[in-house]
Amino acid sequence: MDRLLSDPRSWGLMLTAMLTVMSNATITPSLPGLEAAFADDPLAPTITRLLITAPSLLVAVVAPLAGVLTDRLGRRRPLLWGLVIYAVAGTAGLYLPTIEAILASRLALGLGVALIMTAQAALIGDYFDGPARGRLMGYQMASTNLGGLLFVTAAGALAASDPRLPFAIYALAVPLFPLLWRILPEPPRLGGREHCVLPDLPADPGWRMVAGVMAGAAGLTFVIFYAVPTQLPYHLGGIGLDDPRHAGAVMGAMMASAAVMSVVSGLIRLGRIATPVTGYALLALGFAAIALAQSLAIAMAGAALIGAGLGFCIPTFITAALNASPARYRGLVSGLITSAIFLGQFLSPLASTPLVAHLGYPGAFLAGAAGFVILALALVAMLRRQAPALQVKRISE
Which of 12, 80, 288, 304 lies in disulfide reach of 257, CB 3.0 to 4.6 Å? Predict the structure, then answer.
């Protein structure tokens, strides 16, 4: 068994990652019921849809500042503050009287998510190094996808009884608080108020550009990728697969594949460039398969390729940026990547909806496949311009 799995800090970091996937997805099954419950409010149809994207927007804005806080104040305090905000704001939908108040609570939830994500990503960089860091990023993404399967399934069952009940799932942060308090210690301080991380090692040449490139790649990847959860059900309906269980089966195939490949990507040493390029190739093939699919089996196969590609790309982006950056800036770097990912989620419907209007669903998914090919070529071109020391360093080193 991997020695990482015998380290309680690893499990604590994976549990925090599972919480973050709930920020958007958990209340998806509740939206029709919430809209009906507030039918007397003329803004309800618009606001109920904003409930999904509101946390992403606030995370995108706040995450860089949250990263600075984790560099200034330490890792534990922002993480634990984030858990408190997450529990209070996440469960507020159980009792708030208006849809506008629930929307405000969703924005507050984004603040909690930003603090949690940036602090736990910085802790990965502080606690682990070398191949262990890359493997843990893979385990973390696997836990995120498995959490998504469990929480969305549970939310669907709860929403069938009452559309407010899925908000109760956010209360899982409450029992996690004392557990994480105990098993996630603050890394040693480096003398001086402004530093709270492990002693610095020499940073890679051009680490700022590496961090910027990885953040940009992560954000653009999610702009394209999020066409799957936002547009796929309608595309499946257009080819005769209009039963909601069909969309659930396709999404399930994608999450399961992403969970498996996230672990595998941490064990395979393809290098800083080859790993995300492999992921982009799988993403492009998956989007093309979805575009051309005329059966459930082909759609599920395409979704599995998409999940596998995402499992290769995202852990690589985060690990490469953390490996290149000096320890005292890991909070800021993790905050920038978190911001980019959530901004990509927020912008995705704005990009994909006009494509669907002009090209139809198959054409839009084919455009997404082409977009991943372009991203792969651009990433190769930018990373090959780095200093020789940066070119030869492996992602797992």
Answer: 304
